[in-house]
Amino acid sequence: MQDVLYGSETQASLYLANLVEGTYLFQLRVSDAQGRSGSATATVEVRPEPGGGEEVELEMQVAVSQVSVAQRDKLVRQLAALIHVLDSDIQVRALLGHSHLSTVLRLSVRGPQGPVSGSRLVFLLRNQLLREKSDYLLFRALRVDTVLCLLRCSGHGQCDPISKDCACDPFWTQNLVRRYLGDGESNCEWRVLYVILTSFMLMVFIVSVSWTFICCCRRRRQKGPRRKTKYTILDNMDEQERLELRPKFSIKHRSTEHNSSLMMSESELDSDQDTIFSRERPVRSRNRTSASAARNGNAFG
């Protein structure tokens, strides 16, 4: 990250600011009014600033043109009260415009036992300003990082001085749980192979549970609820209503029973008729006997 000052990219002297630690290669080309030109290559090495390991960048959501000296001093007092130090213990290194909507406040803290390390200061400010007390400062805090990239990257990567993130080695990746749910520090803690295996097993587990749930639902639908048998009193109902309430499979049995009852009634009727006939026959025979006796009496008499 670098800033060209005063439009010097087209002048004889080039002015740069905000150079990050590292080695830079510049190719310069100069031309005159007569059309003659020449080029040269320059190498610039930027070394770490003494005490830069203690400096911290606090990015806030406000344009740098809208921050006054009084507001800057109020920010310093708020930060001192937040981390429990004196106002004079906070040293403001710079106040820079990061974009048209954000400003970076670069500072360091000197405690009773000496300078506070940048990593320790970042840990304190992140927990307070980005999680617990996001509206504590005069302006909303967007980012808290050390000026120099001090991330260890779990021993499996290198810290990018520009983005302040870890560039992991091959076969290593970032622990997303720690990054987004933990302390928010960039790292290289996970092996790519373990991440792939864990993701595959998790997918198989989810598919198995879903398939088991679907099968259970289908079985319940196939069985369905049992129909309850309806009962009613048949004393005050006629024969037609009784036949309608009976199940279909018992209609044949009912008709057979009805026919048998009819046959029984007919047989009983026949027996009654026979009894009547048997009772009438002796009467007739008696009448015939008396008639014949009368005839005989008349004959003898």
UniProtKB/TrEMBL annotation:
Superkingdom in the source lineage: Eukaryota
Write down the InterPro entries for this protein, in alphabetical order: Ig-like_fold, KIAA0319-like, KIAA0319-like_C
Keyword Membrane listed? The answer is yes
Q: Which UniProt keywords apply?
A: Membrane, Transmembrane, Transmembrane helix
Residues annotated as domain KIAA0319-like C-terminal:
55-146
Pfam families (UniProt xref): K319L-like_PKD, KIAA0319
The record lists the membrane-crossing segments as: 192-217
Q: Which segments carry the region annotation Disordered?
A: 254-301
Q: Where is the composition biased (Low complexity)?
A: 288-301
Q: What is this protein called?
A: KIAA0319-like C-terminal domain-containing protein
Originating organism: Pagothenia borchgrevinki
